[in-house]
Design goal:
disordered N terminus
Length: 158
């Protein structure tokens, strides 16, 4: 009976591992950031997350036409928002704070911190008019050059 339970548990764990391997986006302690095409799953790039295990995505918001920079941290195999920095309120921008969130003004920018949620992956559509930029390990990478305009991408940890 004990052997049978062990085999069932082992089989279930092996199947779960296979699913993570097939999707190409599973959380791990290695903190490797992966950007891939959301449809074809083609991998555009992989970067190890160094030091604080943080990265950021910056873009011009399509509706209110002001810059937005979202900073994230790899934690326990998931992506947790650290802060969002933006220039002005407007359609499509955060305006109501959730519990534990704070907003401060830094010069002309507003910064919201205190996010509690985390995600297995992030999805973006790379800009056609203005670029999406990835900031990682001291580098700035144009996602438009890497993936192409209007590319639907998934960012995850592997």
């Amino acid at each position: 009976m004990v052997v049978r339970r062990f085999l069932i548990l082992f089989t279930a764990l092996a199947m779960a591992g296979a699913v993570f391997y097939i999707t190409g986006c599973s959380g791990s302690r290695d903190s490797l950031l992966v950007i891939r095409d959301a449809g074809s799953r083609r991998i555009y790039g992989k970067w190890p997350l160094k030091e604080a295990k943080e990265f950021a995505i910056e873009f011009v918001h399509s509706v209110n036409q002001s810059p937005v920079k979202e900073t994230f941290r790899a934690e326990n195999g998931k992506i947790r928002p650290v802060n969002v920095r933006f220039a002005s309120f407007g359609a499509g921008m955060l305006s109501d704070l959730e519990e534990d969130q704070t907003m401060i003004q830094d010069g002309e920018a507003l910064i919201i911190t205190g996010f509690r949620s985390s995600f297995k992956s992030l999805n973006y559509i790379v800009g056609t008019v203005s670029d999406h930029l990835l900031f990682i390990n001291g580098e700035c990478i144009s996602l438009r050059e890497l993936c192409g305009r209007n590319a639907q991408i998934t960012i995850c940890l592997k």
